[in-house]
Amino acid sequence: MNNADLKTPAANPRALLPILLFLVVYLGNGLYFEYVHPSEGQMGFYVVSVVLAFSIALIVAFFQNRELSFDEKIHVCAEGIGDDNIVIMLFIFLMAGAFSGIASEAGGASSTANLLLSVIPGRFALPGLFLIACLISMAMGTSVGTISVLAPIACAVSRNGGMSLPFCVGIVVGGAMFGDNLSFISDTTIAATKTQGVAMKDKFRTNIKVALPAACITFVIVVIFAFVSKGAAIGTFEYNIWQALPYFIVLGLSILGINVFLVLMVGILLFVFVGLATSSLTYSSALSSMGSGINGMFETMIVTMLVASIASLMKENGGFEAILAFIRKKADSKRGGMFGIAFLTVFMDIATANNTVAIVIAAPIAKDITTEYGVDPRQTASLLDTCSCIAQGIIPYGAQLLVAAGIAGVTSVSLIPFLIYPFVLAVFVVLSIWRE
Question: What is the pTM of this model?
Answer without folding.
Answer: 0.72
